[in-house]
Amino acid sequence: MSETELLLSVRNMEKHFPVTKGLLKRQVGAVKAVDGISFDVFKGETLGLVGESGCGKSTTGRLVTRLLEPTAGKVVFEGQDITHMSQGRLRPLRRDMQMIFQDPYSSLNPRHTVGAIVGAPFRIQGVKTEHGVKKAVQDILELVGLNPEHYNRYPHEFSGGQRQRIGIARTLALKPKLIIADEPVSALDVSIQAQVVNLLEDLQNELDLTYVVIAHDLSVVRHISDRVAVMYLGKIVEVADRKRLYNSPMHPYTNALLSAVPVPDPKVRKERERIRLAGDVPSPLNPPPACRFHTRCWKAQEICRTVEPPLEELASGHQVACHFPENAPEVAKETPEAT
Amino acid sequence: MSFLDVKDLKIHFPTDDGLVKSVDGLSFGVERGKTLGIVGESGSGKSVTSLGVLGLHKGGRAKLSGEIWLDGEELISASAEHVRGLRGKKMAMIFQDPLSSMHPFYTVGHQIIEAYRIHHKVTKQVARKHAIDMLGRVGIPEPARRVDSYPHEFSGGMRQRAMIAMALSCDPELLIADEPTTALDVTVQAQILDLMVDLQREFNSALIIITHDLGVVAQVSDDILVMYGGKCVEYGSADDIFYRPEHPYTWGLLGSMPRLDREPTERLLPIKGSPPSLINVPPGCAFHPRCPYAERTDGKADTEVPDLAETEGGHLVRCHMSRTERRTLWETEIKPVLETQ
Amino acid sequence: MLTYIIRRLIGAFAMLIVISMVTFGIFFVVPQWAGATPEAMASRYVGRAATPETVALIAERLGFNDPVAVQYGRFMKGVFAGAEYDYGAGVEQCPAPCFGYSFISGQPVWPELVNRMPVTFSLAIGAAVIWVLAGVSVGVLSALRRGSFFDRLSMGTALAGVSLPIFFTGMISLVVFSYGLGWTAPGGAYVPFTQNPALWAYDLLLPWITLAFLFAAGYARLTRAGMLETMGEDYIRTARAKGLREREVVVKHGLRAALTPILTLFGIDFGLLIGGAVLTETTYTLPGLGQYAILAIRNQDLPPVMGFVLVAATFVVIASLIVDMLYAVVDPRVRLS
């Protein structure tokens, strides 16, 4: 497997949005949307990025595709440092790195036909196609399960699920290597969500794609991802392969998240031991010091308020940023050499 | 007769493109202290139903028929003014998006005070004390201070708590919650669901939760109604719907959702196609264009609307297939696939 | 809030200074650039019959030979501290705010402006009351009865109101109501409110209605659009679900939100109107600021024009400042910090 080949690498990436105040517009603070995160994405895998509102997962997606410029840190795509690359130099790279958005309604121009929307990337990038753009577009439409004869229709003539397929078709036009999908199914009906999730998986197998899927829905992320990163207030608190993360989560926040998801089984509601977090996510404008989760954590001690826990590998491929992780192999923590 | 008893409710809207049958012959009941979950996708008519029960379609363009009995009183034939007097007092509602559902220009306290004083002739001071009391009961810290905050100064979860406080301010006996947690984060959603269940126990009210999320329904409902194309396709206890479902649409919903309580499957089992638009509901069984078993109905699928028939002990199914056929399909084809997952 | 007000006040003052520079430039500097000699400028003060020597002397005394900045400084000093003019026939005191003397009448500009302000204020305030009441209520009713005969009739009338020029509607109404039916005053008269309120209103009634018609039309359309939008909001549904009476739903919840954009528009319109309802005052020959400005422009009487422009600009700036502050009171989401 080519799984070990690195496609995207992010190191200590930060994005701070300044907040100004007063007569002279002094900067009085910053929304630390993303505050120093590092992760890798390997070829052919799907990395899931989960978290609640304000955790910085969408900003992360926009930073790695350079729709936003990071305040600090480093983003390396296919060996090239793209952190501060100019838009002009980024343009050829955009072919390889595409984004799918949440809202299939607003991300398609209502005055353009499907053919024009899906064909636009060819024209913008000036790509030559064997049998003309139209044939290429129709092939893609068929690939995503749309009728190629609908080439001349407008977005409003399609249902929500079909519009998301159009959005996917557009990103596929130039055979990208990496697709960042930001909440790709959350605006869709349940029965349609499953169609789109399956489509994303089929396309990955067929076209050898790499995904970063950003979502708040833990079940969808588990279904689609190979590895999952959990974010909280601009930080990654836990990364592991899917099985480890969902079966033996180490970070208390991950535990609480998993425990909060309602399960479609009436019996479970009586049996399941649930962790209930108090309150809402604090504002990223003024995040708690040290471990950001300590204000809502039931295991928090003095050290959590004073020392920020680093993101450490406690088991093979399982990184956690917590002073008191759960399900942790105790020996491994004391003497990392033992593993 | 149940505390709330809806019989053959129809809510039709005449439009330029034809008659939109948003709700087309719906019957259900809820007792006090019990919870009914109404499940459906967009355009299934579930939200129109809730507004209809509250009488909010009265006097508008909608054509209403059928009966809505609330505590022995019929509401469709009652005057709009009479139903208005019940609204907020005897029956109340919580909406999906707490930010857009509260008036941005008035404080949270003002809006609760207003709700209370519509139905109680008390001074502002008394109503204000009541509002603070209600905010405290739904778990808002420092209610005496937060009562003067504006909705935009609250977090999403706090806003939904405030909405609940407002809805419960007059001790309603029927509470309808339309997607009450859809706009909230997972951890907050869990808090709000717990709160609603606790308060329902405390107030002993009848609760209707309308949602697209089968997980939410499973967690709170006693009975469940599955809606499709303006009609009920399956109705039964929570156990009926989750352990013995008989309608192919319910099977489809269960197969569509990835589950956290089981090992992940290779693939999800979606329903083909999209939900119908209510302006153009397919003839016969509204689900037949998406149903994998439509050929098994002797050609009745697209010509005859199947009856909503009882299979066993209050479990109702609207399907052309025979009961034995459905049971066999569930036991042999559907359940094994869903469960090996 | 306080820092916001201070910042806005400083901004408003700076804006007025800029306006004064631009107007000063247009009226006094540009003509000189365009070739008008100091003597030509001065000749306007002394009349064409004066000898060249007199003109040159006056030009020297009025400072037309000085650099532009000095001239502007002297003008602004006049506005804030008053000035003295020496025509050779003795020194005349011009107390602050001094905008100079009219070439034509020889009278100081400021007292004339002050004299005429009550007329314009009366006209603007009366018309504003009528158009806000009429426009908003017609707009609300149209929105609530969307598609009805009333809606179509009022929106048709509103379209006419927006598109018909004021001198047209003004003339027509004069012909019909004053000369024809004799219901209203024929115009040209103004009795101060303090003297006789009834006569004051009688004289102003027709100008009020004419002016209000023009503005009410726009307000009705804006209110209708705003109401249609807000009545579809989720919080309206919530208000109904609480059991609130429909009238209160409309007024307390719907109209309250629909009125905010109208407030903004009103600030601008009212400021402009105080600055001079030029066409209306001319049509009805009312002795207000607008009429004064028109007369001055016709006679190339620069100091009154200059004074008028600055006074009008001040009103517009003040009105928009007040509206911005009111906005924060109406909509708590607007943070004034």
TrEMBL record, chain B:
Q: According to its UniProt record, what is one Pfam family this protein matches?
A: oligo_HPY
Thylakoid as UniProt keyword: no
Which segments constitute the ABC transporter domain?
4-254
| Top-level division of the source organism's lineage | Bacteria
Q: Does the keyword Transport apply?
A: yes
UniProt-listed InterPro entries: AAA+_ATPase, ABC_Ni/Peptide_Import, ABC_transporter-like_ATP-bd, ABC_transporter-like_CS, Oligopep_ABC_C, P-loop_NTPase
PROSITE patterns according to UniProt: ABC_TRANSPORTER_1 (PS00211), ABC_TRANSPORTER_2 (PS50893)
- Which membrane topology term applies here? Peripheral membrane protein
Q: Supply one GO BP term.
A: peptide transport
Location, primary (coarse class): membrane
| GO-annotated molecular function | ATP binding; ATP hydrolysis activity
Q: Which SUPFAM superfamilies match?
A: P-loop containing nucleoside triphosphate hydrolases
GO CC annotations?
plasma membrane
> What UniProt keywords apply to this chain's record, in alphabetical order?
ATP-binding, Cell membrane, Membrane, Nucleotide-binding, Transport
Cell compartment(s), UniProt: Cell membrane
- What protein family is recorded? Belongs to the ABC transporter superfamily.
User: In its UniProt entry, what is this protein called?
Assistant: ABC transporter ATP-binding protein
Automatic annotation (TrEMBL), chain C:
Indicate where this protein is primarily found: membrane
Pfam families linked to this entry: BPD_transp_1 (PF00528), BPD_transp_1_N (PF19300)
Q: How does it sit in the membrane?
A: Multi-pass membrane protein
Please name the SUPFAM superfamilies in this protein's record. Answer: MetI-like (SSF161098)
Q: Tell me the ranges covered by the ABC transmembrane type-1 domain, including all copies.
A: 117-327
Which GO terms fall under molecular function for this chain's record? Answer: dipeptide transmembrane transporter activity
Q: Does the keyword Zinc-finger apply?
A: no
- The membrane spanning regions, by residue number, are 12-34, 119-144, 156-179, 199-220, 257-279, 305-330
Q: Where in the cell is it found?
A: Cell membrane
- InterPro entries listed in its UniProt record: BPD_transp_1_N, MetI-like, MetI-like_sf
List the GO cellular component terms. plasma membrane
Alphabetized UniProt keyword annotations: Cell membrane, Membrane, Transmembrane, Transmembrane helix, Transport
Q: Which family does it belong to?
A: Belongs to the binding-protein-dependent transport system permease family.
What's this protein's name? Answer: ABC transporter permease
